Amino acid sequence: MLRNPCESKEKSLNQQIMNEAFFDKKDYKSLDRVDGRLKVTGAARYSAEYQLPGLVYAVLVESKIAKGTIKSIDSRAAERAPGVLAVISHVNAIKVPGYQTSNQHPSEPPVNGQPLRAFYDNNVYYNGQPIVAVVASTLEKAQFGASLVKIQYEKEQHKTDFDANMDNAVLPAQAKKNPKSPVADYNRGDKNAFVNAPVKIDAEYVLPTEVHNPMELQAITAYWEADDRLTLYDKVQGTQPTQQHFAKEWNLPPENVKVIATFVGGAFGNGLHNWPHETAAIIAAKQVKKPVKLVLTREQMFTMVGYRPYTWQKIQMGATKDGKLVAINHESVGQTSSYEEFTESTLQQTRMMYASPNVNTRYRILKLDVSTPIWMRGPGEATGAFALESAMDEMAFSLGMDPIEFRLMNYTDSDPDKQLPWSTKYLKECYDAGKEKIGWDKRKMQPGSVRSGEWLVGYGMGTGTFGANRGAAAVRAQLDADGNLLMQCAITDIGPGTGTAMVQIASNTTGISTDKIIFQLGNSQFPKAGNQGGSSTVNSVGPAVQAACNALKEQLKTMIASKGGSNAAFASAKKEDIVFVNGQVQIAGNDSAKVDIRTLFKQNNIQKMETTQESRPDENRNKYSMYAFSMHFAEVHVHPLTGQVCVKKVVCCGDAGTIISPKTAANQMIGGATGGIGMALTESAVIDHRFGRYVTKDFAEYHVPVHADVPHIEVFFVNKPDTLADPVGSKGLGEIAIIGVAPAIANAIFNATGKRIRELPITPDKLI
Amino acid sequence: MGDNHYSDQPENESFAESRRNFLKNTSLLTAIAVTPGVVAKAAENDLGEKIASAFDKVPLKMEINGVKQQLSVEPRVTLLDLLREQLNLTGTKKGCDYGQCGACTVHVNGQRVLSCLSLAVMHEGQKITTIEGLTKGDQLHPMQEAFIKHDGFQCGYCTPGQIMSAIACIREGHAENEADIREFMSGNICRCGAYPNIVDAITEVKNNGQKL
């Protein structure tokens, strides 16, 4: 029988993450996902699963060249094929009003570029670009129709090879315009400090293109309910950002565009942008006057909805012999498309993570004939952390120091970049907890010193950090006479368990039991929310939930107190003391102050009490530097003959502020670690540069981690609130879950083998 | 797994009848399929509709989630697309359409099958169970309960496939220990990375020893 040689019989330790001993009594408790039942019964509906009357199907035909122009499109056979309703391309597509926005002379390229416009003109910018949509009455007929379309091209010489073209990298336009842009060149202290440092390392790191590849294929169902009213069931990370985008593109008032994304089957960043296939479906729906469903194929997921860009980095690090950092120079070049500039914060943590007096960073982008990248989980920070945390390990080894000690030696109690105090930072607590759990004392400084049978054993660690971002958000809360609470917000849930966390915040704020609270999301008609992205959801929507719950309490207090008598105590009660128990409003610690909600509503002649509250970031953002931190430890076994790497154990410690939903938070950490295993060991999208085309366009060629690749993962949270960041005390989790995992594994592989691999993924060929 | 579910089903009169019709129709289709030029030419000569009518007229009988269905499907329709697009059983998911991700896993005569790699007409007379067929009234299947308890998912998209596969994994005797579970569940990808929780859920159901 085939058997993964990495497997051990060790009992799973996953349960330990839920050990309530790590949480105080007053803390949030583990709750089963509020949408769990819908997800395990198949009742949860994703964007391609709405059966609208008259629904028809669109299938996209992609370009087969990487650069040039379309000479001709022969659509006759497709048009005659049974069931085909329309064959749409730039030749016959209706005009999209928002396409005609540029005031520039057409010969001048736009400054920051612009997203690819579906069916706009005959230019081909990359291999795999959507060129034609075939619309038919069934999926099979659309697929068959699409196979009959013949496209002739005028080919031009393309550039897709990053290494061959790296000399053409440029400063991003936004940095040219604004020297204070986060992607502009950065200098702190002495520019040339590295040259004279007593101990130096100087190394280059490469991260290949990685693709989000959520399990749900990107899907949209577009429906023009009237000539000026558009409804989209769309796989996106923000319903209102998508609403704004398409309102502008179709020159409609935003309220005429409705975006539904009740369930999103993973996204990891690829739903943070609106893409040409969405416009293609909207155009098609307009032309055939029917609702159109368009689902990308897995191949199209590699070229139509972004990816983590191929990135080259160079780090020069200097230290004193006793382990004080004196200089870090960090350079990065990231890939982007020829038509749109994409940038990310690859270098941000190098500026703030360690107390180096001298730091230079330099960020460039390289325009190639490829599609535009988009943030992928952990985004640039995960890419940057691979280089920075590998370099820290290399330096610690050069100095003969323990990697944790070396980091502690250069620990900083305030942000050296912004020159502000941290709102909170509990990274030392993460080091301590993680060291013990991974069994760090078993690690030997000298690589290759620990063995388990014929396998080489190594231990490694990596630190992660990501901004504790917060945006404005609003929540509508409605209390009925039975004491049920209904809340609504436009935010999406791409998997972390947003509804579950919000129900817990509402329950914690009001005392209403979680089974009497419903949180509805994923609809642009609900109150304000941005994208689910950048680890900002709990930090942004959580405070709005709290604010709405507190506003309900105020309304009730006023209503009750106005009646006077025994209820006058409510007038002076603190909102924290007001609780809802069994359909009653009570003041904690005051047994006589009790009001039945049903009776109260009846007396006041109301059915329901409702409020909508918005919560925004406050001025603390200017006074403190706000980051979440994480620490990842990995134990790997490497086979000296085959180069096979088995990740035996991962320990993740998060300083993410208050943990609202311990169960789903731990799961999110495990998921981040799993993504990190993919980054470190398997994931790479490869282009055949002769054709400028990906050759790894499915799960047989692009390897994401499967069950057999993922070991026991232990998760610990510091779980200390950061109320400067936001009132619920959360700092965000999604990104720090993956940032630092790949270098932890790479460092463990070095510890096992003595081989320092600076180009991901670390496949066996690099180790033998 | 294997091909035995094609032969272990008794062919009653009506099933045999429809199979003959199917074969009659397929002889034309096979001829077309092996000569793609013919198809293109036929389409150019406006013969498309005639081809389509041949495609359209394949009767198919199946039992889906305990309900006998008399269907009429194009032979090129996969079991997955039949479930999702024609029968509104959208619990079965499309994640790759190549049999590489497991999201489309259903049970055919009790065994796990990738419905995207399987044409609907290949399942004449067979019993299909999808995620929607696991619950008994309001009562969740023990595996569904365990997935909720152990939080064996995040976005939920791979979940129906994981659950269908997990049940089969235990029935096959491939859940004796965690190593086996990991090995025999590796055809079901979870990009959110809830694998360890899924393994815990399966282990618990296995240890409870209920007949699945």
Automatic annotation (TrEMBL), chain B:
Domain 2Fe-2S ferredoxin-type residue range list: 58-134
PROSITE patterns tied to this protein: 2FE2S_FER_1, 2FE2S_FER_2, TAT
Gene3D superfamilies for this protein: 3.10.20.30, [2Fe-2S]-binding domain
Pfam families recorded: Fer2, Fer2_2
One Gene Ontology MF term: 2 iron, 2 sulfur cluster binding
UniProt KW Cytoplasm keyword: no
Keywords: 2Fe-2S, Iron, Iron-sulfur, Metal-binding, Oxidoreductase
PANTHER family: OXIDOREDUCTASE WITH IRON-SULFUR SUBUNIT (PTHR45331:SF2), OXIDOREDUCTASE, IRON-SULPHUR BINDING SUBUNIT-RELATED-RELATED (PTHR45331)
Record-given protein name: 2Fe-2S iron-sulfur cluster binding domain-containing protein
